[in-house]
Amino acid sequence: MITKNDCILLLSDLQEIGIPNVTKYLRMQISSDTIREDVISFINKHRPLDISLFYENLRKNYNQKKSKLYKEIVQVDEKEPKDIIVTLSSLLTQIYIYSKKVDEKEMFLRHARTKEILKCLAHYTDTGDYLLCIDFLVLLRADLKALEYKAFKNHFSEI
């Protein structure tokens, strides 16, 4: 997902374009061993993360009844094992399609966890064991919900 170095790089980009208070967040992130929620919120407020926009796009497509992928990610507990593989494969396809729209493709692909998705699918292909895929889909759901929560908080802090 998002790394400490990604946060520092994104904050530096914000600093270059003159966003105020960036230095404060840079110091907080540099001195922290983990990714700080307030730093992610600050970055997302001033420069929406491509991964946040991607998940928002999935949700909008679901709400408009175009796509079931969002629901398949958030309702992982109710899925049949064979559907988990299809969900991960579909997600990977959507990530690659969406990556054509982003400026920082490598960072987006890393934030979307494409390598991890590929490893899970390869493990399933080699062994027929889908438990790693289930665990990973639960992790993806947590990523999605965390980013939605931060976007929700940013939206209502502006009102």
Task: Describe the protein in words.
25% of the residues are buried. The chain starts with a helix and ends with a helix. The protein has helices spanning 4-16, 22-31, 37-46, 50-63, 69-74, 81-99, 105-111, 114-127, 131-157. The protein contains nine helices and no strands. The protein is mainly α and 159 residues long. α3 (37-46) packs across α9 and α6 (81-99) packs across α9.
Task: Compile the SSE list and pairings.
Blueprint: H1 4-16, H2 22-31, H3 37-46, H4 50-63, H5 69-74, H6 81-99, H7 105-111, H8 114-127, H9 131-157
Keywords for this structure?
159 residues; mainly alpha
Per the principal axes of the C-alpha atoms, what is the gross shape?
Answer: elongated
Radius of gyration: 17 Å
Q: Give me the number of helical elements.
A: 9
The chain-level mean pLDDT equals: 89
Main sheet makeup: none
User: Count the strands?
Assistant: 0
Q: What is the chain-wise order of helices and strands?
A: HHHHHHHHH
What structural class is derived from the secondary structure elements?
A: mainly alpha
Unreliable segments of 5+ consecutive residues: none
Give the amount of beta strand, in percent: under 5%
Termini separation comes to 29 Å
Helical amount among residues, as a percent range? over 70%
